[in-house]
Amino acid sequence: MLTSLDKTWGLVLGASSGIGRACALAMAQQGMNVVGVHFDTAAAARSVAELADEITACGVQARFHNLNAARKSTRDELVGTLGELTDGAGLKILLHSLAFGTLVRYLPEQTGGPMLTQRQLEMTMDVMAHSLLYWVQDLCAAGLLRPGAKVYAMTSAGAVQHLPSYGAVSAAKVALESHVRQLACELAPRGVAVNALRAGVTLTPALRRIPEHEEFSRDSARNNPHHRLTTPQDVAEAVVLLSATTSSWITGNTIGVDGGELLAAGGSWASQEGIRQDG
Fold first, then answer.
1. DSSP 198-259
2. Nearest of 13, 271, 16 to residue 151 by alpha carbon
3. Domain spanning 9-264: CATH superfamily
4. What is the pLDDT along the chain (279 residues), one digit of tens a residue?
């Protein structure tokens, strides 16, 4: 059954820029109240304030928190707040769009350079993959994921393809997709859908931090059947569209939102993900 997002609540992890920002705004335009979590320096405060103003201009509530979404203390603080904000009704959407991971290669190049450390790998896995599970666990325990709720995690073609600096992030994306499948099965009896969205190459601040991004962005735009890159708005439109139902029958998938890019890539790819928690 189709449903309205009006007066419901959405939680965006990684809300200050890129895909997370576009999704937060698209939710608001459909009448959804938005809670955003971002992890930024003071320099980004103006941009976040502007986003909050755009959201409230849609006639809905906007609550932004500059906190590390991967920390237990953040979940402890915000889950209780979410219960109060939603008046016990829970969330309609949880969007996990965290992009904080190392871009260090596994092994040094022949000419020298750094090598991936255990600490860097564990941090990348924890933020970009395991934090999804921990948020879902805590929201479920608080009764905030109810029938009709949707959980989305942002993945990339890097889960199945190679890029020199992307090894740790690729491993995290594989783990993230595995968490999505497991959570989908465990949440099915509760009527909650869980899916991963595989965006095509998207020009976000996170992408620009990947050393090889310029060449792969050019190749991706050339090879995409639409002859352009994915935009954050493309992804936001998919989130809103998939959420306009009470059904949980579309669940456990990795859904391509790339205009056919992966089909035509010919081995050339890049990702919208990078080294910040801003989606």
1. EE--B--TTGGGSTTHHHHHHHHHHHSTTSS-B-HHHHHHHHHHHHSBS---S-S-EEEEST
2. 13
3. NAD(P)-binding Rossmann-like Domain (3.40.50.720)
4. 888 999 999 999 999 989 999 999 999 999 999 999 999 888 888 999 999 999 999 999 999 999 999 999 999 999 999 999 999 899 999 999 998 889 999 999 888 889 999 999 999 999 999 999 999 999 999 999 999 999 999 999 888 888 888 899 999 999 999 999 999 999 999 999 999 999 998 877 666 667 776 776 888 888 899 999 999 999 999 999 999 999 999 999 999 999 999 888 754 444 444 333 444
Q: Which two tokens stand for residue 242?
A: 């998939």
* CA distance between the termini of the chain: 30
Buried b (16+ CB within 10 A) or exposed e, 121-133: bebbbbbbbbbbb
Are 256 and 148 in contact, with CB atoms under 8 Å apart? no
pLDDT for the residue numbered 110: 84
Strand order in the sheet with 91-96: 62-66, 33-38, 9-13, 91-96, 145-155, 193-199, 254-257
Contact criterion met (CB below 8 Å) for 67 and 37: yes
**Among 161, 270, 165, CA closest to 207:** 270
Q: Give the CA radius of gyration of the chain.
A: 18
